[in-house]
Amino acid sequence: MELQQMRYVVAVAEEHSFTRAAERCFVVQSALSHQIKALETELGVTLFARTSRRVEITAAGSAFLTAARASLEAADRAAADAAAAAGEIRGTLTLGIIPTVTAVDIPAALGHFHRTHPSVHISLRGGGSDEFLAALAAGTMDVAVLGLPEPTPVRGVATHLLAHDRLVAVLSADHALADRPRLDLATLAPETFVDFPAGTPGRAPSDRAFEAAGVRRTVAFEAMSIDLMLDLVRHNLVITLLSPAAIPPDDTLRIIPVTDGPTRLEYLAWSDFNPSPAARAFVEQVIGAAPGRK
């Protein structure tokens, strides 16, 4: 049994096609099919049920797939650790990025990291803080930037506080409240809001703040994209609360401080259980360039 055979099995399982798996592995399909058939003969089991039009993994294949992925990860980690010991960072870096990153210039950070460690393969994932925390704890993600309401204890991962922001109100320049020097939640509550989906960490700071203030608001639109939120605000359909650093200069928008507005914490987070050399190098770079601030 060879590692390359395991890689072929993983590729077929994920692509549901021998043709696409061969393309992904940069090998001709006949060679990939031959290697998987040889592996099945060696193991004495059928890993895939296939016809000319359909490929499905068998129960035996599913059991093998789990162990194969773990073996490949261990092999990649062994190679990365050996390279790190020799002074070279290799392997992969899986980075989770929330839509509201403001404390780190992600493109600049990745550019510097790639120039410093060109042998590291970087995989970027978008999503929310909850799923990133679960992925970090499960070992399927290396590093993530999280946005969480205050106070939120973070357990099971290592963290570094990057930013502590008070959210501001964002209104259309045509809004009736656009000329106010400051606002409070009671004044904003009757307005129609756009916010992140209910139950997400991005939404939690505002929901908690309105609850603490004893006033209710109406969130008519939910979105994960800040650009979409701001477009709705520009059309004077809604208002929103965002970190001031997330709002680009725009004459069609008004940014107004909220005296009792919500606060938000932004963290760099990573697994504290045996992080990879690439993860350690990226964390050290980001913390060195952007120390925690309040």
Automatic annotation (TrEMBL):
Entry similarity comment: Belongs to the LysR transcriptional regulatory family.
Spans traversing the lipid bilayer: none
Keyword Transcription regulation attached: yes
Domain HTH lysR-type per the UniProt entry, residue ranges: 1-58
Keywords of the record: DNA-binding, Transcription, Transcription regulation
Entry annotated with the keyword Phosphoprotein: no
Pfam families associated with the record: HTH_1, LysR_substrate
UniProt-recorded name of the protein: LysR family transcriptional regulator
InterPro entries per UniProt: LysR_HTH_N (IPR000847), LysR_subst-bd (IPR005119), WH-like_DNA-bd_sf (IPR036388), WH_DNA-bd_sf (IPR036390)
